[in-house]
């Protein structure tokens, strides 16, 4: 039996404007509880919202980056519901006329790129946060109340957890590129709700949609989806029907748990926010936003291929995040070999970053340090292998490569006189290998070079060692 | 000299030329309040100490020859739904019985900037929902002309305070006639400015698209004086309009010769008390005598206005009043064991019947499945009503009508019958729906009770309606006797 998984996403991303969406309070993360507040974001009686133009601009930026249609006239609406973190009893959001409609994000698949369609992008205010006190009560922190958000809703176009991960990475990278959000899932500046169900392809029988919440990392998204995919397929196999429900991901037990069963759609009694006026968006404004938009991943990739003459694959990897791309470009400045830089970053650097689950921003060394290291290798001052060791040290200590090389005495022995003595010693101890070489076993030469490297703890210049060994053998 | 009988502009003149001090003025009014407030019950909160302090400050400024604002030293009463920093703002509700705002509404900032003296907060229907102050959690304000009659509402406290000479000026607020109707009932002048002319920031919202703060005074000059102080663009209110400042006092001096006035036949229907109609028609004759041209006109969508109003206003109100949930401020029930109960019991106990009724209706008209049928349709009707006015004002300068179809009624007469209570707004709500401006000016008495003449102007034509009202006031030939002058008869 073949099954098709159907996944759609609702993503909330905090916008990094300086002030909140409807008042002048700062959007800064953290801060003492309830210190980034005023009558407006506390919803005090009589306080009124005034829209922050920057929020509209950032929303338009996202719309442009994701190929959406930008509304020429839009409005804010009230979404009415009661919850303690919602100060006014309604959230100011957008209902039937979102700021941006349509659009897509392209993800790479084995059989070529696939477009994941975006249904809409709208702007809204964030709510406060419940904090649980030691005595079991609930306290409220409204620093986040009124922080601007964009909500991005996709069509149900994703068919595997892997595809969702790809999509989210693309989305995150783009939001970073266009400088509208710092997209930190841990700090809650990127939040992702997922809708999933599975259809039995032959019969068309479907499971009811499950909504997943409390997904705090891309990894959690993937794991929760894998879990749900299996659960839904199992339901189909057993011929069981499931209820439309909201579940949350339990990271400790690696399972999803029912939060609530959805009985009919909630009625939010949307209506146009009468405290705000219509938002009119002029063509020229959109154009000026478009013109001033930072370079997007795709454009950067093309440029990297042309400017640095690196393969498409390399350019793709390096432009995955704007921070990685910037790191690459900075490093290239110190090196004469862009492809070599790409190899090192895609290889040792990214491997270590992925292993440690850190980000390029968290590195202890700078792009200049890496450039210096590569320059040492290019100039033959250290070998490739020593270079790798030095890089490991740089990860651990953050020291510059020249310091590490100096402290550990790793400079390559390129002095003929000094190396000759060692070579002679190695040859003396390995007469058999010389015989072998003379008898046509070329591998013996490699063995001898290796012995020299061993003797010098890797510091010998291998080309020079090679040359000296041949000279001595010839003399014999 | 009895200071409490002077008009606001007379007080201003005497304070400025040093004839009297602001402190004397404030003391006189506080004495008056002391004497009669128990009978009138116009105030929820009095701020004696701060008022005296502020008066002394103004006196000091005047003594020093410092520049002072247009309201220098004049006591002003504030409707209790307008936020006053450090001073209770209850909205006439148990829900906000002990709520003290940490900030001033923009209109309060403006009054303070102009050196006005805030003397206290006036009674009102709970959350401005009512036409008689009877829905107030605290008290019912009496009509100073007849203590058995209502003062009107929802700004009944402000209107009665002026009529009883407890203050010379007051702020009220309108959503559907809440300044004009009590002004009419209490025989004072009350203005509903054009939507957007006065900042709503800090005014506790009832229906955002209709709410507007308005001044009340003994005479038209007082209205112009207070309006001068409170108008102006406010960046904190997105619905406030950028417009050059106008000196409304200056506009009063011109005559009204040739002004074109329309009398909408729908406002003189059989539902309007014949005696009230009679007084309006007498006023029309006065205006004709001053050179105004009067014709009968029609505002055909008038009959839908009341229904339209109650849908739009209640829809918005149901959402605006959601913030009173017992979580962050205001009343919280003692009786709850979970969140649902906290909400339900807080709101059940904290709100009065009329407020709950309107929240229920408002919630219903916004519900999915009913939105199109009610709220959306009401908004469309609202557009038609706006067009009625727009078309009329292409031809006419002013629309004249009664303010209220009935005379002040007895306390208790209508409170059990919401529909008949709503009917008392029938002649005022259209103006709010259309967003235009209107005022009520006394035009005589029937059975010893005041009747108000409603003067309606196009958006931002306050100068025109004030000018007409002033010309009428100067020439109406009626002895307007503030009830304070008949204190013995009233037993005050």
Automatic annotation (TrEMBL), chain B:
Query: Could you tell me the keywords of this UniProt record?
Result: ATP-binding, Ligase, Nucleotide-binding, Protein biosynthesis
Q: Which PROSITE patterns match?
A: AMIDASES
UniProt keyword ATP-binding, yes or no: yes
Q: Which top EC class applies here?
A: ligase
Q: Which reaction does it catalyse?
A: L-glutamyl-tRNA(Gln) + L-glutamine + ATP + H2O = L-glutaminyl-tRNA(Gln) + L-glutamate + ADP + phosphate + H(+)
- What GO cellular component is one of the record's annotations? glutamyl-tRNA(Gln) amidotransferase complex
List the molecular function annotations (GO) for this entry.
ATP binding; glutaminyl-tRNA synthase (glutamine-hydrolyzing) activity
**What Gene Ontology biological process does one annotation of this record name?**
translation
Q: What InterPro entries has UniProt attached to this entry?
A: Amidase, Amidase_CS, Amidase_dom, AS_sf, GatA
Q: Which residues form the active site?
A: 79 (charge relay system), 154 (charge relay system), 178 (acyl-ester intermediate)
Question: What EC number(s) would the UniProt record show?
Answer: 6.3.5.7
Q: Which PANTHER family match?
A: GLUTAMYL-TRNA(GLN) AMIDOTRANSFERASE SUBUNIT A, TRANSAMIDASE
Q: Which NCBIfam families match?
A: gatA
This chain's function reads: Allows the formation of correctly charged Gln-tRNA(Gln) through the transamidation of misacylated Glu-tRNA(Gln) in organisms which lack glutaminyl-tRNA synthetase. The reaction takes place in the presence of glutamine and ATP through an activated gamma-phospho-Glu-tRNA(Gln).
Q: Which family does the entry's similarity section mention?
A: Belongs to the amidase family. GatA subfamily.
Q: How does it assemble?
A: Heterotrimer of A, B and C subunits.
State the name under which the record lists this protein: Glutamyl-tRNA(Gln) amidotransferase subunit A
Q: Which organism is it from?
A: Anaerosalibacter massiliensis
Q: Which gene encodes it?
A: gatA
